[in-house]
Amino acid sequence: MGVEKYLGDSIFATSLSSVANWARKGSLWPYPYGTACCSIEFMSVMCSDFDIARFGAERPSFSPRQADLLMVLGTITYKMAPVLWRVYHTMSEPKWVICVGACASSGGMFDSYAVLQGIDRIIPVDMYVPGCPPRPEMMLDALIKLQQKIQKESLNDPKYQERSDYLQRIFEESDIEVKK
Ligand code: SF4
């Protein structure tokens, strides 16, 4: 007994974007880029009390090539910024970024010569989570809102093309030679 029982001879129509986005939003693989106390708060989000698995994002990845959700959790210094930039650009499209806490969003209380005053100075951000530290529920709320955003995205979104053009330009301007 399958779906035929319910659908009979009726026609089921949808768009490719809807199906792809539905799959994408329900199987996010987070890369926790934790540098300070916000990452400890993220650990509780992964545990059973808050259980991020309910939203299909329980599989953390510690390789950017196997992740599509970058979660920045903590203070980012100028020394650390190039590493974050590289991690972001190593992730393949489509990818999203959640910026967790005051430090990652704006430098927080560390208005100093050593601290980057917000990660959106070097990489694009999809969701910001305020607080110091944010409650685990706030991180889950950001994840749910990101899922809603993903569901509305188009597969022809120009942002993907713009990023692709940008990376192509960087590649062409580099000294890397491709042997044919
Ligand atoms: S926002 Fe607060 S809790 Fe989070 S890393 Fe900064 S100081 Fe720590």
Describe this structure in words.
By secondary structure, the protein is of the alpha/beta class. It has a single domain (28-173), classed as 3-Layer(aba) Sandwich (Rossmann fold). The protein is 41% helix and 10% strand. The protein has 7 helices and 4 strands; from the N terminus they run ααβαβαβαβαα. A 4-stranded parallel β-sheet has the order 1-2-3-4. The protein is globular and about 65 Å long. It starts with a helix and ends in a 7-residue tail after the last helix. The mean pLDDT is 87.
Strand and helix map with partners:
Elements: H1 4-7, H2 16-25, E1 30-34, H3 37-46, E2 69-73, H4 81-90, E3 96-100, H5 101-106, E4 127-129, H6 136-152, H7 158-173
Parallel strand pairs: 1-2, 2-3, 3-4
This protein binds iron/sulfur cluster.
Iron/sulfur cluster (SF4) is lined by residues 36-38, 74-75, 101-103, 108, 132-133.
Short description:
With 180 residues, this protein is of the alpha/beta class.
For the structure shown, list the relevant keywords.
binds iron/sulfur cluster, Rossmann fold, alpha/beta, about 180 residues, four-stranded parallel beta sheet
The name of the CATH topology is: Rossmann fold
Instruction: Give the neighbour order of strands across the main sheet.
Output: 1-2-3-4
Query: Structural class, from secondary structure content?
Result: alpha/beta
Range of strand content: 5-15%
Unreliable spans are: none
How many domain units? 1
Bound molecules: iron/sulfur cluster
Radius of gyration: 19 Å
Shape-level CATH architecture: 3-Layer(aba) Sandwich
Question: Biggest β-sheet: count, sense, barrel?
Answer: 4 strands, parallel
